[in-house]
Amino acid sequence: xxxxxxxxxxxxxxxxxxxxxxxxxxxxxxxRAEGFNPLCGDRATIFLSLxxxxxxDAAFKGAGCSISTASxxxxxxxxxxxxxxxxxxxxxxxxxLVTGDxxxxxxxxxxxxGKLAVFAGVCEFxxxxxxxxxxxxxxxxxxxxxxxxxxx
Length: 152
Fold this sequence. Notes:
It is built from four helices and four strands, in the order H-E-E-E-H-H-H-E. With 152 residues, the chain is α+β, with helices and mostly antiparallel strands.
């Protein structure tokens, strides 16, 4: 990954970590789940409002590192307006990105990930994968009707 691209990605992650979007609870959500990363103590609660099969609103509360907070922030923006199956497919693409081959991180980034591609470099730091994926696993748990999820 080029230094310019790495700097841009870091800037986007820091922006979302410092000023997270959708950091709030949703009153009477259609789906809700709590996630916990026992390795570092990150916690996330994901709130989803569904209109039929479509996610009309997504929000989160919690406490975590910059990667965890930025991932939840960008995820809530990315899944809004998506159907359950589209959100699950996006989860799969994101998970593949952060757990993929570090030598091919930017080349293998799925173009449909959009802004989520900023997490391409996470695969170079295995300890941070769970930070980046916590909100995603929690969102999937909410869609599946599970109340809690752990990254362990």
